């Protein structure tokens, strides 16, 4: 049993990595009071930009291109919502539609092309630890990069002045503006950071996880990332747990038939998304928990006088 469990858990970490990147980016964006529902579109633009970059400069270059692609995709959203005051939810949905179309158009030039992929890094000594070693310490460097991103985001939000300012802007932008903080600029930076992280998540899919370009390859992961922020009640630690939980469900549905579970493949493929809906329904019933952590100005435009 253990010999079957170890590869499943190891692949779960890899499958959850794009959710970690995109979820952390959306978490920071929402902490500033901005809700961006365009994560799916930004991930797709990051995926095609990352694949194009990886063809020229390798996986690391592809990740940088993906981050830049996601950041550029978030810029029109930031301008429309923060500078012009458009509705954030509607603009985010428009960004997703735009990202799906633009990535499909650009990606047609990369169909049937492939990348060599990325070999896992086996960390000496740690990889030899029974059970945990093969799971945690034989991953690609991008998985370790996601752990580093989590540690930095969690530390900045909880322990630094920057994190305090970001949370203040998300809770009471009028008060933050009154004491001299540039609310719009901070929200721009948070939105661009969210776009960059979503782009890295998309680039990971096209350059490492499945090193090729496939139209609409995110397959709803952007929406799951948005849902994870609510699932986590805007806390980075819970977001990481949720990402690996949903990543595990994705992998289990792939291994289900091999484990002897006789269910239609279409039903098994829907399991992660059904689980997302169920979790959100359960969490939404605890309104006290949501209100305690929900940024007070989330989704509300700010207009300086």
Automatic annotation (TrEMBL):
Ribosomal protein found in the keyword field: no
Taxonomy, superkingdom: Bacteria
Main localisation: membrane
Keywords: Cell membrane, Membrane, Transmembrane, Transmembrane helix
CDD domains: TM_PBP1_transp_TpRbsC_like (cd06580)
Segments passing through the bilayer: 6-27, 34-53, 59-80, 92-111, 131-157, 188-206, 212-232, 239-256, 262-283
Subcellular location per the Swiss-Prot or TrEMBL entry: Cell membrane
Family matches, as InterPro entries: ABC_transp_permease
Protein name: ABC transporter permease
Any Pfam family the entry gives: BPD_transp_2
Signal peptide boundaries: none
Membrane topology listed for this record: Multi-pass membrane protein
